[in-house]
Design a protein that fits this description.
alpha+beta; Phosphorylase Kinase, domain 1; Aminoglycoside 3'-phosphotransferase, Chain: A, domain 2; 2 domains; 6-stranded antiparallel sheet; two-stranded antiparallel sheet; 10 strands; Aminoglycoside_PTrfase
Length: 283
């Protein structure tokens, strides 16, 4: 890895770094300049622009480190690599105060994203991706039911309220420092979608890893709504995306023979969030 590290630091400094692999495409790099993460990347132009923009807007986010030759990516054969300075904080614990802080942070992130040009960013076609997972499975009553459920959903992802979203908001990509400030990493899945796609994706992880976890979902949505009030129709958008993501995870996690186990939780979630997310009506 020395040749990769020396693309960002002098060879003398690079020799003093210690490298540890922590994921399939991620390495922790500790040395004279601090702690960094080396990650495989194929393209960095958009990611560098958006993270620089977020820093100018006082949004804490992972920022790529420039190479010695300029630019933000170095190559080894056909693989590209980028280096990121470690942002302060630890992975959030499963408690209401952290969930509220994450909700507030995500609302601010979305507000800033609204003003960033997104013409070059791919649309997040969530229903199509879900259908692709289903189509890979053999026929069974549960699979046939899932296919029939998808038909009325497949045209809804592109309806209204599109903007830039992170596309991978989950606890593993979030950090909270000692002062309670939240930061986010990994911007290589930036997409255009409704902002509720990010919110629903995060809540799907709360459901998958913590059961129904209504107090955590409620705290997250309250934190989001306090910073950026929910608009008319966003309850339906949230539940639509939550349904899609839970179906995706049912098939991804090998629960295709019994997707009802996760989906049965949706009724309780829907009842809990409807009043919370519905905008007040004028009387």
């Amino acid at each position: 890895m020395l040749d990769l590290i020396s693309a960002f630091f002098s060879e003398e400094d690079a020799e003093r770094f210690k490298v540890k692999r922590v994921g399939e495409c991620v390495w922790v790099v500790d040395g004279p300049g601090g702690t960094f993460y080396l990650k495989r990347r194929m393209e960095m132009d958009l990611e560098e622009k958006i993270t620089t923009y977020l820093h100018r807007c006082s949004i804490m986010a992972e920022l790529p480190h420039p190479t010695r030759q300029g630019g933000f990516i170095t190559w080894s054969g056909e693989c590209g690599y980028a280096l990121y300075a470690c942002i302060p904080g630890i992975r959030p614990g499963w408690d209401a105060s952290n969930m509220s802080a994450i909700g507030t942070y995500l609302a601010n992130l979305h507000a800033v994203f609204m003003h960033f040009p997104s013409e070059r960013v791919k649309t997040w076609d969530i229903s199509l991706h879900t259908m692709e997972w289903i189509q890979q499975c053999s026929h069974s009553p549960a699979i046939d039911w899932a296919r029939s459920l998808m038909i009325p959903f497949c045209s809804q992802d592109l309806e209204g309220g599109k903007q830039l979203v992170h596309g991978d908001v989950h606890p593993g990509n979030l950090l909270i420092d000692k002062e309670g400030e939240v930061g986010i990493i990994d911007f290589h899945r930036l997409r255009v979608a409704h902002r509720m796609a990010d919110a629903a994706y995060f809540c799907t992880h709360l459901i998958i890893h913590n059961g129904i976890s209504l107090p955590l979902i409620t705290a997250f949505l309250k934190g989001y709504g306090a910073e950026s009030p929910f608009k008319e129709g966003e309850v339906a958008q949230f539940m639509h995306h939550l349904t899609m993501f839970i179906i995706q995870y049912a098939f991804y996690l090998g629960q295709a023979d019994d997707p009802f186990a996760s989906l049965s939780q949706l009724t309780a979630v829907s009842e809990a969030v409807h009043d919370l997310m519905s905008p007040p009506r004028n009387t």
